[in-house]
Amino acid sequence: MHKLTTCPYCGVGCGVDAELGEGVVAKVQGDKEHPSNYGRLCVKGSSLHEVLGTNGRLLSPLVDGQRVSWADALDRVAEELLCTIKEHGPDSVAFYLSGQLLTEDYYVANKLIKGFIGTANVDTNSRLCMSSAVAGYKRAFGSDTVPCCYDDLEQTDLLVLVGSNTAWNHPILFQRMQAAKRKNPDLKVVVVDPRRTATCDLADLHLAIKPGTDSELFSGLLSYISSEDLVNRAYVTQFTEGFNEAISAASEQFNSRAELAEYCGIDLATLEQFYQLFSATDKVISFYSQGVNQSSSGTDNSNAIINCHLATGRIGYPGAGPFSITGQPNAMGGREVGGLANQLAAHMDFSSAEAIDRVGRFWDAPNIAQANGLTAVNLFQAVEKGEIKAVWVMGTNPAVSLPNTNQVSRALEECPLVVVSDCMASTETIRYADICLPATGWSEKNGTVTNAERRISRQRGLLPPSGEAKHDWWIISEVAKRMGYAEAFDYQHPYQIFAEHAELSGFENDGKRDFDISLFSDITETAYDALKPVQWPVTNDAPYGTARMFADGRFYTPSGKARFIPVTANKPKQLPTPELPYVMNTGRLRDQWHTMAMTGRTSRLFSHRDEPFVELCQADAQKEGIVEGELVKLSHPQGEYIGRARITDDQRPGELFVPMHWNGEFSAKARMGVLLEPVTDPISGQPESKHGRVAIEAL
Ligand code: SF4
Fold it and tell me: Where is the 4Fe-4S Mo/W bis-MGD-type domain (predicted)?
């Protein structure tokens, strides 16, 4: 028997065709009909059946380390939350969610805390992934709208990959790009990345810029477009505002292109070659991810890219647009339901009293939150300060993934109530839990996810839950009922939650908001089970979904026009010092996913890279007396990291690369997060995880 579902790893959101055997997933292959991957799977996706089973799973509810019944565990969570709220107010409670949650889980969690508990102290690990892209889109378009779709990668004539090792981190999209280049030899590929990654194998041009110079590179491009009279005046006049201010800000940054090239650490000829290519090509996709977002100026980086597309009118038609790519499988679904602390639900936020009132009325919510809550880094700082006294972590591992992870561990250690819902029993975070709630994992969960091209797909239950594991939406709803909100959380099946979410998306909308899937408001269980992948918005005008946005030049700002954003030069905050002389760049590996809770369960996925490492160039290795393969230590006042030296010319001098995955379960001394300072983008709250500073020595 075969069932169709979706891969739970990256934001590509590939469709999976699972072959079921006797109580197991016997085999997986790509879903040939799924429009995101057309039958392909990468090495992580194709090993999904190997990481299942009960080994290492959290199988029963635990309170203070003792096995208890579900009823007792849920009673205890509800009682403790009510008690905390009564004594210290709603803002003393926080939820920390995950892009691994399904949209239905996310929706219910957000509804409980923002509508009924009455605080917006709910954030998600998506904050670490793409919140700068969200903020950039909202500033430019008035909405968090990804304008493009994957087909655009094949229809374009110029792919500009910025801060994205697509070959490793979004492998199926990279395969689509490779195929597109084979089919269209005129397709040019530019990679902007300090490192020479596997993605550069496809590049006609590689700009190995200094880390943290992205916005200056694109502001320079905007200035070039203007000075060379390449602006699409008709588009700018009819569909945008703020052009002159953005041009002034861009032009004032450097006295000459030569000065800019030097600032970016590349030669002038390479810089100008890129600018000429961009300017001379009508169909340009700028494809960007964490290298752009994980910066203390991540939002400005996004807007510097978007400004160039607006100035040339390269948006809203096939093969053109600024295309941010999410890291997580359901980062987009989390954005839809308001999983971030500065969102409300259905792409509404706290900037509008009308929106707060609308969501409150729709939910019939007694305590609708009135203002933004704390974002991830600030949230765990507030836990350490004692301002937050109860935190519920769902499906994520902040004691490994957040910057300054030792601080996060301290905060969790000292917090009076830590609840963790997870499918795994031994994450770093679960060690601090007073109450552990076993959640279903991939192959057991049942709901929807939305990938990086706005495509909603079903993740279907293939197997019964392991042990006593329950779905996250059920766990949250049962706690809500015990807190006195039974009527609002009386869900029996995820299709009911999806239908409510869809109804809210259309509630008093009238085309004012981009996210609208109200055609699904009356979806039945049968239709939900059969739901085919579809890109939102899904409306009467677009019943089969919407491939790309802004074709009509209408945006979601008050004026209906897209906004240019003036961007000024901004250096990273974690700059090298004599004591910490190296820039530390961080990232993912081809065959691992985040903190390895799943991918770490199959030896096959360790054949690519089997231990923590540090990459550095030959010149730096010589300077530090380090030889290939020896253990090295990275130091920072916050902590240390130990890994094996890999000497490579792919690394710029003065810069190191460290993978993000390893943690206590696999290697106690290789949590790279301990080295990252808790520096964030002031607009998006996203941490500057791509630019640490460290010292290195041989052990
Ligand atoms: Fe899964 Fe991403 Fe690989 Fe597709 S590209 S199979 S979604 S990990």
Answer: 1-56
In this structure, what DSSP letter does residue 34 have?
Answer: -
**Do 116 and 147 have their domain in common?**
no
> Quick one: pLDDT at residue 51?
86
| pLDDT (0 to 100) of residue 393 | 98
**Dihedral in degrees, nearest 10, Cα atoms 461, 464, 467, 472:** 30
Instruction: Please indicate, yes or no, whether residues 277 and 220 belong to a single structural domain of this protein.
Output: yes
Write out pLDDT tens, residues 57-109. 999 999 999 999 999 999 999 999 999 999 999 999 999 999 999 999 999 99
Output the domain CATH number for residue 176: 3.40.228.10
Our count of domains for the chain comes to: 4
Q: Are 147 and 548 in contact (CB under 8 A)?
A: yes
Kindly give the parts of the chain with pLDDT less than 50.
none
Q: Is 39 helix (H, G, I), strand (E, B) or coil?
A: coil
| pTM > 0.95 | yes
Assign residue 47 the CATH number of its domain.
Answer: 3.30.200.210
Burial 420-445, CB ≥16 within 10 A → b, else e: bbbbbbebbbbebbbbbbbbbbbbbb
**Ligand 1: distance of its center to the CA of 226 in Å?**
39
Q: How far apart are CA 98 and CA 89, in angstroms?
A: 25
CA of 170 to the centre of ligand 1 (A): 7
Residue 87's pLDDT is: 98
**Interval 444-470: pLDDT, tens:** 999 999 999 999 999 999 999 999 999
> What is the predicted pLDDT for the residue at 476?
98
Give 83 Cα–ligand 1 centroid separation in angstroms: 43
532 in a structural domain: no
| 541/544 Cα distance (integer angstroms) | 9
* Top mutation candidate among 4, 9, 34, 332 for ligand 1, by most atoms within 8 Å of CB: 9
| Domain of residue 34, residue span | 2-51
Assess whether 338 and 294 both reside in one domain: no
Residues 265 and 220 in one domain: yes
Q: Which of 153, 172, 176 to mutate to test the pocket of ligand 1 (most atoms within 8 A of CB)?
A: 172
The answer to whether residues 586 and 475 belong to one domain is no
Nearest CA owner, ligand 1 atom 3:
42
Does residue 539 fall inside a structural domain? no
Q: What is the pLDDT of residue 595?
A: 84
Phi and psi dihedrals of 20, rounded to 5? -100, 135
| One domain for residues 175 and 298 | yes
DSSP letter for each residue of 251-303: HTS-S-HHHHHHHHTS-HHHHHHHHHHHHH-SSEEEEE-HHHHSSTTHHHHHH
Atom index in ligand 1 nearest the CA of residue 12 equals 7
Distance from residue 644's CA to the centre of ligand 1 (Å): 28
